[in-house]
Amino acid sequence: MRVPLPEHHNALVLVESGHAKSGSEHARDGELFVFENSGAFVELVAKEDSHLLVMAGEPIDEPIASYGPFVMNTRSELAAAVRDFELGKFGPVPA
């Protein structure tokens, strides 16, 4: 199946369940395909009954700082986000 995408967008395909193929790459439950500005579509083949989630967007060309599930632009923003989380400012998080 060809999934159309706007040109110059990056795309990420999550295999929520099943087994899929794109080119020579394979992905199964919980694995990803990553496409960087690769054209106007992505080609996906389900190798069995599968559920895929396709996400795409323009690259933001900004610096990235990450720590676990936290992603910010700078280390100071990252430290502030972790501090806010530890102080409970994100609300309750289910275990």
Q: Termini, distance in Å?
A: 37 Å
Inertia-based shape: extended
Order of neighbouring strands in the sheet with most strands: 5-2-8
Q: Tell me the count of domains.
A: 2
Number of helices: 1
**Low-confidence segments, ≥5 residues, pLDDT <50?**
none
Domain Pirin C-terminal: 3-91
Pfam families: Pirin_C
Protein name: Pirin C-terminal domain-containing protein
Provide keyphrases for this structure.
Pirin_C_dom; 95 residues; mainly beta; 13% helix; 3-stranded antiparallel β-sheet; RmlC_Cupin_sf; 2 domains; 1 helix
Describe this structure in words.
InterPro entries: Pirin_C_dom, QDO-related, RmlC-like_jellyroll, RmlC_Cupin_sf. This is Pirin C-terminal domain-containing protein. By secondary structure, this protein is mainly β. The chain folds into two domains: about 1-55; about 60-90. About 15% of the residues lie in helices and about 45% in strands. The chain has one helix and ten strands, in the order ββββββββββα. A three-stranded antiparallel beta sheet has the order 5-2-8, with no helix packed on it. A three-stranded antiparallel beta sheet has the order 4-3-7, with no helix packed on it. Strands 1-6 form a two-stranded antiparallel sheet. The longest helix has 12 residues, at about 75-85. The radius of gyration is 17 Å and the shape is extended.
